[in-house]
Design goal:
The chain is built from seven helices and six strands. By secondary structure, the protein is of the alpha/beta class. The protein has one domain: Zn-dependent exopeptidases (Aminopeptidase), CATH 3.40.630. A six-stranded mixed sheet has the order 2-1-3-6-4-5, sandwiched between helices. The radius of gyration is 18 Å and the shape is globular. The chain starts with a strand and ends in an 8-residue tail after the last helix.
Length: 244
């Protein structure tokens, strides 16, 4: 039986769409380094074990699914610089191209999340994070924890956050940070009126192989749903009201 979760993997893609391919100045390695390195290896094998799974092939450097449509910062929805502050394009993108990217790639991603949310109990937006904060991060140069779980102080009930944190700590045998260095991005905030959402960040530090990280994530989620359905049934009845 599949776990009643929706897995979102917004930053594992590496493709540069044809609309901007000719003016993108990034090397393949720079495209890889701007995305969630290892995310595909960690999370994609979980696809057949959950009720819903949404990912994109588009590189984060080109289009960020975890940003609002009106976020036009250099690290916004359609970026001008990578998270390592490297310029992405040979010239400024036209508004026409930006609108096309959003219409053809970004909106369908979020429409899928909304549609699948009708059939699941929890959404989990899955990422990997640099072992040390990059220049545009909230913690530049600072060493990060192995695991960070976030609910933006309201996208998921606190009881659920406590339980899932304990499951990850037990399976990974490491401490779990909650809402630090990340409190949760656009995806969990914008879709929290549909179902509860959690953001998961795993450090790229090689404390485990990517294959083992994925296996541990699946095991932690299996333990989590068992706790929701058996000894802590009162949690299942918690009235969910998003705080954001």
């Amino acid at each position: 039986m599949k776990l009643p979760f929706l897995i979102s993997v917004p930053h594992a893609g590496l493709n540069v769409p044809s609309e901007v391919k000719e003016i993108c100045r990034l090397t393949k390695q720079e495209i890889i380094e701007d995305g969630d390195v290892g995310a595909a290896d960690i999370y994609h094998p979980i696809k057949n074990s959950v009720a819903g799974f949404v990912a994109t092939e588009v590189a984060r450097a080109v289009l960020d699914m975890n940003r609002a449509e009106n976020d036009r910062r250099k690290d916004g929805i359609v970026k001008t610089h990578t998270c390592w502050d490297v310029p992405i394009y040979k010239k400024l993108l036209s508004e026409e191209i930006i609108v096309t990217l959003i219409k053809d790639y970004y909106r369908p991603y979020h429409e899928k999340l909304t549609e699948i949310s009708k059939e699941v109990r929890l959404g989990i937006d899955c990422h990997t994070m640099a072992a040390f904060g990059p220049p545009v991060g909230p913690d530049p140069g600072i060493e990060r924890p192995h695991i960070c779980l976030s609910n933006a102080d309201g996208t998921c009930p606190q009881e659920w956050m406590w339980i899932i944190s304990r499951c990850f700590e037990k399976v990974f045998n490491t401490n779990v940070s909650v809402n630090s260095p990340f409190k949760g991005g656009y995806i969990i905030k914008s879709h929290s009126h549909e179902i509860p959402w959690i953001q998961l960040e795993l450090s790229r530090d090689p404390f485990l192989t990517n294959l083992d990280k994925g296996r541990c994530v699946l095991e932690a989620l299996q333990q989590f749903v068992q706790l929701l359905d058996d000894p802590l049934k009162h949690v299942r009845k918690t009235q969910y009201t998003p705080a954001i």
